[in-house]
Amino acid sequence: MLVAFMHGFILALGLILPLGVQNVFIFSQGAYQSTWLRVFPAVIAAAISDTVLIVVAVQGVSLVVLSYAWLKVALLIVGIVFISYMGWLTWKNSDYIRLKQNEAKDWSLWRQVLFALSVSILNPHAILDTIGVIGTSSLSYGGEQKIAFMTACILVSWCWFTLLASMGRIVRTLDRSGYILGLLNRFSAIIMWISGAYLIYLLKM
Predict the structure, then answer these.
(1) Under 8 Å CB-to-CB from 53, ≥6 apart: which residues?
(2) 84-110 confidence digits (pLDDT tens)
(3) The whole model's pTM is what?
(4) Structural domain boundaries enclosing 60
């Protein structure tokens, strides 16, 4: 069981560490929300989304999804449109956040939750990583070992999103002018567009 747990932990950590749309959103919410409690909805929604994807993948749905090429193409197309649109919104709001940070209103609970769910569920990278990598890797385990593997993957998600939000809070504390947050938003937009371009590349393969 320990080997399966460590395998799941290291694998999930390797998949979740790269800076992507989901990570950028959680970090930015930690930075933009006025209190730590107001960041919880985004963190919990993203973590629950990952939990559901991991459980579904480990239970064998990965084999079904990987068997249908058209489903992969559909996921990629939806992801390209969504990520490109998110990048545009993020870039557009950069100057507002930098110049009007103190006047900016906190996102409502439902807006946070919906965005967190969308950057998780409509994120082809997250889906393909979860189903294609975690799902297939779990096939070598059974019974308690599979549960240990799955638990480790889920634990990494919850801990990582909490850490990201905390790092965002630290940046907010150090950046009262909003200048760093404005640059962060532009950087986030560029990351999203690069992700979209990569998805287009995958679509052509």
Answers:
(1) 120, 121, 126, 127, 130, 131
(2) 776 777 677 655 444 344 444 556 777
(3) 0.72
(4) 2-14+21-204
